[in-house]
Amino acid sequence: MTSRRQILATAILTPLVSWGTAQAADPPEALALLQAKGAQLRKNAAGAVTAITFPKSEELTDAEYDCLASLQSLTALTFYGKCLMTDVQAAKIARCSGLTELAANATRLTDAGFAALAPLKELRKLTLWHLGWETPKEDRLTGKGFGALAELPRLEQLNFAGSTVTDEGLAALRAVKQLREVVLYHTWTSDAGMKHLSGLTGLRKVDVGPQFSMRIGDAGVADLATLPALEELKVQETILTYAGSLGRLKQCKALKKLILDRVDAQDAEIERLRNELPGVSVEWKRATPEESERMRRELERKMARGTGS
After folding, report:
1. β-strands 101-105, 40-43: how paired?
2. Most CB atoms closer than 10 Å: which of 45, 68, 118, 269?
3. Residue 184 parent element (H or E)
């Protein structure tokens, strides 16, 4: 028969053993190797590493990614410089199951690589600047692998600015219903892609900008105006009109902030919009004459090709 003393000892020791397991120390040799490659560490009160930033990440190898995978308290990971992370290395990062934020510049991820991130069930924010430019040409990234991100139930923010993502990627993104914020300025997406984006009815914030190319204009913004939960919209480097898109923003009942950055528009139309949206902050930075001329030439080329505005 189990004695009262044994029962009491078990009750006391069990939580101590569990706490010790949960708070296992980070391998010192792993931390030393990461710091040798410039890793900046942030630790919690117990001394466990919770966040790492690499100011430069060009020289990271499989060895460093193996070290990162051994840090079980890690919640935030950022790679500046040219990260050059491959699909295989992304799978190593995915062993850090507690990650809530992951950011990397200029990875070598392919569309197939997004499936490797599936174990990151706590991930809330994913930032992949200049996605696709360092990917091998034979694996040119379009974003068609974005559908795999639907496996990340907490993912709310996705930033792939400056990337090679196309409308094919936005079509795949429709499966990621949990998204609340998408940043996609300076990508290869177009007006047609904005129609796909309008299928993400939970979106609260969108940031687009076609680099004065007129790939996105009135038609695309008109589709974004159908998003029922949209609170903030930023549109950069394009031509917009009241009749074509701006006037339609009145249907965005949740809209709180509109940013028009280097946008060619008419003063009277912007003033009309402000009057019709009294509860919305409307910020407008006018395109320069040179930028406007460039966009009008691009628009003429599109019209000549019969592709619209």
Report:
1. unpaired
2. 68
3. none
The values of phi and psi at residue 43, to 5°, are -120, 160
Give the global pTM: 0.90
Q: Phi first, then psi: what are they for 232, rounded to 5°?
A: -140, 130
Cβ–Cβ under 8 Å, residues 37 and 60: yes
Rama region for 186: left / alpha / beta (φ>0; ψ in -120 to 50; rest): left
CA dist 296 and 84 (Å) reads 37
Dihedral sign, CA of 96, 100, 104, 108?
positive
Contact yes or no for 209/189 (Cβ under 8 A) = no
Q: DSSP assignment, residue 171?
A: H
pLDDT tens profile 57-86? 999 999 999 999 999 999 999 999 999 999
- Residue spans of beta strands (DSSP E) within the chain: 40-43, 49-54, 76-79, 101-105, 125-129, 157-159, 181-183, 205-208, 232-236, 257-263, 281-286
Nearest to 72 by CA among 18, 35, 104, 24: 24
